[in-house]
Amino acid sequence: MKMDVLLGLQWGDEGKGKVVDVLAPNYNIVARFQGGPNAGHTLEFDGNKHVLHQIPSGIFRNSIKNVIGNGVVLDPVIFRNEIKKLDPFNINFKDNLWISNKAQLILPTHRLLDAAYEKSKGNKKIGSTLKGIGPTYQDKIARLGLRVGDIFYANFKEKYQKLVDAHKTILEFYQHDYDLEEAEKTFFEAVEYLKTFNVSSTEYLINNELKAGKSVLAEGAQGSLLDVDFGSYPFVTSSNTMTAGVCTGLGVAPNSIQKVYGIFKAYCTRVGSGPFPTELFDEDGKELQKVGNEFGATTGRPRRCGWLDIPALQYVIMINGVTELFMMKADVLSGFKKIKVCTQYELEDGTITDEFPYDIVDSEVKPIYEELEGWNCSLDNINSFEDMPTPLKNYIQYIEEKLGVPINLVSVGPDRTQTILR
Length: 422
Ligand code: GDP
Ligand code: IMO
Ligand code: MG
Fold this sequence. Notes:
Blueprint: E1 2-8, H1 16-23, E2 29-32, E3 41-45, E4 48-52, E5 65-68, E6 73-74, H2 76-85, H3 93-96, E7 97-100, E8 104-105, H4 108-120, H5 133-141, H6 156-173, H7 181-194, E9 198-200, H8 202-211, E10 215-219, H9 243-250, E11 257-265, E12 268-270, H10 283-291, E13 304-306, E14 308-309, H11 310-320, E15 324-328, E16 338-346, E17 352-353, E18 366-373, H12 390-403, E19 407-411, E20 419-421
Parallel strand pairs: 1-10, 1-11, 2-5, 2-10, 5-7, 6-8, 7-9, 11-15, 14-16, 15-19
Antiparallel strand pairs: 3-4, 12-13, 16-17, 16-18, 19-20
Bound molecules: guanosine-5'-diphosphate (GDP), 6-O-phosphoryl inosine monophosphate (IMO) and magnesium ion (MG).
């Protein structure tokens, strides 16, 4: 019985899709436990690049079951488009994709509400991906939501209409213009399509497999600094992106969780609004964005870039119980002679702290940096930790000492093969 978790430790886009694809052959099940089509997980192999939004990143590995858990919010239209894109790859969805009947459905009006709420916030907007994530989770908690299992019942359209009527009242209040006709038609076609997939109480599937000695990898979406409780609230997503979310998002007991893989970029990025203490507005920031090709996999928006933030990582390692670290995109730092790392923060009143501040949104949090030597050479032909240039070894050791957790994987390029394991 083995349940491991892989989580992003920053503001998302750490490279979770790539690493889940690399690790998947070691597992029997890969399961998404939260989030929805706000995620964009990129996988590269055999010269192809795939971006998955709702389908777990184990889907290209034969004989692995992929589960979309109850903690996920699912858009049937985006789901259908994703499946269609995978057509050429002969994936046997009947055997290797399972959807929880308790996952919440994203309706076309949830997306409209997302847009209306964002517009009403003016320059305080979250920078949402506008996929309807927040409004769908809102309805879940308000006990108004529709679940995937509901689509099989004769009264589904009635239930749908009741919720949509309530949404229309809110949209009117926000004076948000819309035309639903086409979107509704597409939605109901996609719902019919969704009915042809395995929909079940996936908590039984997962627990039965665990009992039978099989292994499960939970694939996080977003990152811990976007967690609705512990992230930079209110500039967060609407789910628990942390280890604890695995239990509620899949229906597994806390004591079934063993390893927690925390994944981070060798620097830091953020897409959308919200605080980012180590954000760079200079040439270094532009260089990170250019070399790292830092543009959102879901929205195409440029990602804000900055140096690694140790206090933020220490914080999320604590709340997640991270047991192993994976460092991504080390190759992006290859051209830098000097690399900075934020080790503490200075608050507005002059206090120096190691803690992730509560009021990170409204008060100024200044990073205090230490500078390390860059390796200033390509990592293209490096295949082992031993072969790494000394400054990279030093960078890894420095981070490990600060974080107290070993770095067991270093990624040096987007392809499956560009992965160095310890
Ligand atoms: P996710 O949301 O955590 O799965 O990450 P994204 O797919 O949104 O963003 C990560 C981006 O970095 C993708 O374009 C990946 O192909 C790419 N990537 C992943 N690992 C590496 C790496 O080690 N080096 C480089 N240069 N790119 C990487
Ligand atoms: P993956 O899984 C990066 C950000 C949005 C916005 C905030 C709220 O690919 O790492 P939402 O649509 O959830 O209401 O947006 O969260 N965000 C992400 N940023 N990667 C993601 O997912 C994200 N999912 C949401 O940009 O700032
Ligand atoms: Mg992403």
